[in-house]
Design goal:
about 325 residues, alpha/beta, about 50% helix
Length: about 325
């Protein structure tokens, strides 16, 4: 439902914030206003002291107000790409606690959740952060429930991994105010193939998870990801990578605790799950697109892995989406 007045969103830019994150977030709101032919959202740029902020890359961006002088906000977004700079988090907690708005949404983009955690504003809340800083946030603030999801919305706290996830996150927020159909039209403005849900995990590079010392394993997984519709055999993958089948199986067992065929199958099934939840393709079409020879083969394999049939998966997701839209 459309608000009777514009929702005022404040964007607090911390040192080394990403210009791209700020541009994406504010552009979504600007485009939403244009599409609605109404001023649904207002954007306000803020810094802790009201002075221009040195962004990631060195450019300095002027802001409209210091955080302490901000008018009543409906949401405060904290933007950062750094967990090592000097930030006066007392200013952030003071502004939130003195806002006088019990419904204030406090959100973080990129590494902003690290600073919200330091300010004591994420205790007992689910939060995410850019994948490079997941370990640091978890270690420094064990009272925060840290995930590797694209974004998290937990009561009046929200967080997003930044980058491309900022687009999905902001469109999700717009959807909560203006509806799913409006959000779908808005996503078309950005040429999005689909709107990714918050519970979709960040794509953490395999080389980061296992270290950069296993290029053959990384290459093998890349081959699998590029050949979902027509799966390669384990022997083919070993041949293309330039190792023996036994060597390849040893690498998968040592670093991923599985065998190549099982890892490959899980990749295909997870891709099928995304398609079931986010497209209108038929179950047979999805099965074929994910390398299964027939609908029954796909359905039985899916059920064995997820303990739910593809048809039940789609119905369950549709019901959840319907309830969320009410």
């Amino acid at each position: 439902m459309q608000a009777s007045r514009p929702l005022r969103y404040g964007f607090l830019l911390l040192p080394n914030a990403s210009m791209a994150d700020f541009a994406i977030a504010s552009e979504v709101l600007t485009c939403a206003n244009q599409l609605a032919e109404n001023r649904c959202f207002e954007c306000l740029s803020l810094s802790l002291d009201g002075q221009p902020v040195a962004l990631l890359g060195g450019q300095r961006l002027p802001v409209e107000l210091p955080l302490s002088h901000a008018p009543r906000l409906d949401a405060l977004f904290v933007l950062s790409s750094d967990t090592h700079c000097e930030v006066n988090t007392d200013e952030i907690s003071r502004a939130v606690n003195q806002s006088g708005n019990d419904k204030l949404l406090v959100a973080a983009i990129g590494c902003g959740s690290y600073w919200l955690a330091r300010a004591g504003l994420l205790t007992g809340f689910r939060a995410t952060i850019h994948w490079q800083e997941i370990g640091r946030l978890s270690e420094d603030y064990p009272e925060v429930i840290v995930s590797s999801n694209l974004f998290e919305i937990d009561r009046n706290r929200a967080s997003c991994a930044g980058g491309a996830a900022t687009l999905d996150f902001m469109i999700s927020l717009v959807s909560s105010h203006l509806g799913g159909e409006f959000a779908a039209r808005l996503s078309e403005r950005f040429s999005m193939e689909r709107i990714r849900p918050g519970n979709e995990r960040q794509r953490i590079p395999l080389a980061t998870r296992i270290g950069g010392s296993q290029p053959k394993l990384t290459e093998a997984v890349s081959l699998m990801e590029a050949n979902i519709e027509e799966p390669l055999s384990t022997d083919d993958i070993a041949f293309y990578v330039g190792v023996s089948r036994r060597q390849l199986e040893r690498l998968f067992k040592q670093y991923l605790n599985t065998v190549p065929s099982k890892y490959y199958l899980e990749l295909r099934l997870n891709r099928a799950r995304q398609l079931l939840q986010q497209t209108s393709k038929s179950i047979v079409q999805i099965g074929l697109a994910c390398g299964f020879s027939s609908g029954p083969h796909f359905s039985s394999t899916y059920r064995n892995h997820f303990n739910i049939t593809p048809r039940e998966e789609r119905a369950q997701h549709a019901n959840q989406h319907s309830e969320h839209s009410l």
